[in-house]
Amino acid sequence: MSGQVPTPPPTRMPALFLSHGAPPLVDSELWVGQLREWAARLPRPTAILVVSAHWESAPLTIASTTTGTPLVHDFGGFPERFSRVTYPSPGAPELAAEVAALLPGDESVAHQPNRGLDHGAYVPLTVMYPDADIPVLQISLPTLDPERLLRLGRRLRPLRDRGVLVMGSGFTTHGLPFLRDPSPDAAAPTWSAEFDAWAAERLSGGDVDGLLDFRARAPGMPYAHPTIEHFAPMFVTLGASSDPEHPPQQVIDGFWMGLAKRSFQVA
């Protein structure tokens, strides 16, 4: 006998949907505290897989798997300090191979080795896992069709048993063109508040069918989502759930710049 202590199996991870915020999220003491407390309650992931609203590419594309790829500072109009942020998380080539293996044989997979994490991925991660010591992989949104994204989430579900934190990163409302007060503490416009309340009710009732049909059923549309890429990652998270119709734990609510920052985790 070697006397070596066997490595325990990885802890099964939940899957998350979070409203990721713009780079100034890190200046919000309340929001930063909420994200940090959330991360502290989670088991430590072996790796993190992010699907962000800020990367649409078909076929499904896997980003850089190497350590040291520069971040994508895909924004403008903010102070220069936000463009100097780094997040040197380890690459995740093993996870990239697992993701590709989980997809149907007739579905193409592309690779974009020079693309780093965009702000939908790294902004919340700098708060939740500031040491940047967990491998992170980002994949693209290959479609905005909620049904197809739900199926993608189902494909990714086995990763959770290997300790991978599957994270859909978007925003529960994202009607930027219709905001009249851009201050962080602005009151929520009616369309944002009504859409958020509707989404909270659908989540509480496990009403996946209602959420899938949000463009037709939700109040506040199309103002809450004039384009739908920020709601789309939610369906990857729901698909990755053990039971998408089981009500998720809604961890964060409230508003920032009038936009709903509702975020949840599924078992």
Automatic annotation (TrEMBL):
Cofactor(s) required for function per UniProt: Zn(2+)
Pfam family, one: LigB
Keywords: Dioxygenase, Metal-binding, Oxidoreductase, Zinc
Example of a GO MF term: oxidoreductase activity, acting on single donors with incorporation of molecular oxygen, incorporation of two atoms of oxygen
Organism superkingdom: Bacteria
Gene3D superfamilies named among the record's database cross-references: LigB-like
Segments forming domain Extradiol ring-cleavage dioxygenase class III enzyme subunit B: 34-243
Similarity field: Belongs to the DODA-type extradiol aromatic ring-opening dioxygenase family.
Protein name, UniProt field: 4,5-DOPA dioxygenase extradiol
Organism of this sequence: Rhodococcus triatomae
